[in-house]
């Protein structure tokens, strides 16, 4: 099985201003929310611990009209792509996945940053 093509690199530092919002968790709900936000004209930075989900989201954004979605495979690059204070919407499965994602992001976040846990464990 061939490895997936790499996600297009996020714009080089200094060429694109930092984005106002980021979304971590690109399964069905996360991917659709990110694309909806981008479709409304708001550039969004996305991250998922599985690179294939990042690739699929960026590819879908391109196919649906070159939507302003910047994909990131690493938490550091994802957080640094956002303006301060950082705002991250989290849409991952409740439980250990939430903890693991927060643990991956925390080293790059500050006290004034916000993580909005938008998952629903009862769905």
UniProtKB/TrEMBL annotation:
GO terms for molecular function: NADP binding; phosphogluconate dehydrogenase (decarboxylating) activity. It holds the Pfam family NAD_binding_2. Transmembrane segments: none annotated. Residues 20-122 form the 6-phosphogluconate dehydrogenase NADP-binding domain. It comes from the Eukaryota. InterPro entries: 6PGDH_NADP-bd, NAD(P)-bd_dom_sf, Pgluconate_DH. This is 6-phosphogluconate dehydrogenase NADP-binding domain-containing protein.
